[in-house]
Amino acid sequence: MTITRGLFLTLGLAAGAVGALELLARGSHNLISATTWLVGGVLLHDFVFAPLVVMLLLAGMTVLPSWARPAAAAASVVLVTVTLLAVPVLGRFGARPDNPTLLDRPYAAGWLVFAGLVLGCACGWAFVQRRGEGRQ
Amino acid sequence: MSQLKLPIPRETDFKSRLRDPAVASRVGLWLGVCFGLAFLTGLYSHFAQADYTWFPLPTRPSWLYRVTQGVHVAAGTAAVPLLLVKLWTVFPKLFARPPREKRALVLHGLERASIGVLVATAIFQLATGLANTSGWYPWAFSFRATHYAVAWLAIGALLVHIAVKLPVITGALRTDVDAADQDRPGGAATTGGLSRRGLLRTTWVAAGLAVLTTTGSAVPFLRSVSVFGVRSGRGPDGVPINKTARAAGVTASALSGEYLLSVSAGDRTRTLSRAELEALPQHTATLPIACVEGWSAVAEWTGVRVRDLVALVDGPPGAAVLVTSLQRRGHLRRTRLPGNFVQDADSLLALRLDGEPLSLDHGYPCRIIAPNRPGALQTKWVGSLEVET
User: Fold this and answer.
1) Contact in structure between B382 and B369 (CB atoms under 8 Å)
2) pTM, two decimal places
């Protein structure tokens, strides 16, 4: 175990050094911009996204009956993560007027279908849970 | 005026028994697999584009780059739900109070710093990679160089994190996921409705759906379900376009009646019109075009073998060829086709795509298409070929 850990630590520090040197080699303009995005990502997650999720979860757990909670939690995990992933296509930020082969799908409609299917499955699950609780 | 003061939470304020090593190590394991895959395929792509002489790329199999880059983007995509769930499970750690004892404090500080680097670089890689696949560049840094540099930082921080946590990880993975002895002190009060196993299954479903709904751009049979795919796969002759002739500023020069391709080796130069190129022996090859942004498409390309053009000017067999586009700007205006690619029978200066003359956006009057090359190096609107002598 000690040897494995030592190996991981050494390799990790070496890889990190390669990354730091590569980043520094790109000049200060590149470094400042990259650092802003590196730090910005953590701040956005730790102090905006994560607290928001914690608060919404607390609210959901207070409002929802126990039979609806597992389905609601699972649906939230799927919907929130996939929606975040789809932000660049939903916003079509990279679209270029001269290139119709890029971002050429009806993304909003696709999202509605996706969200509908996820919520449909969740409702089905919650319904089964409720019947199960009723029998007990 | 009254002051509103929100208390800073403590690690023990988070009661859910889902936030513990049992879940974190299992999600972390797959997150590590995804980051490992993305790192290795990313390195391969970087070397393929950098054209290092100490890393000669094979020309076969012709689909290799298509697969490695497809895996790169799919691994990064699957990592998004995995990372978000992983960060959720360990969020209470953010509020852990530092120890009082000096040595413990130093170790604690070092670990927190390495975690800071890991979280920052992981979020950065996934966010910038994702934006890049959709052609969105809302930053000032150079994407390719910075994504490459930060990849080393991320994999380094990940290895350090594994080194620090190895006893916790192996302990957690050896015990049943819902066993009570894995509860954090102070935790275990609530589950938020899901069991640990339930949360894990949900996470795998989310990661699977993330890949299914996006990879149709590279895997044709998934197109109908890839509602978030950046490209539907449609385009002139069934092949999408990355950069249009208008964006490259080559419309006038590519359509000019005076267009001539220049082929040279040392002081020997031949110029050929498009009609003269069509009169040379033609060869047809079915090859994929695989973009670094993850989309790919297979098509039937017809044109003159690059090695036949090299022979026209008595270029030495096995020499590399410098390909220059009619584009005036851009670092990919000039690319180098290494010797083994020049020799390959399927490396073409293509004039036709699926039997039709190349459309302007696909590189008319002629473009390079070679097996197992990143799409960015399949130079369009070729103006000259120079054999390295």
Assistant:
1) no
2) 0.94
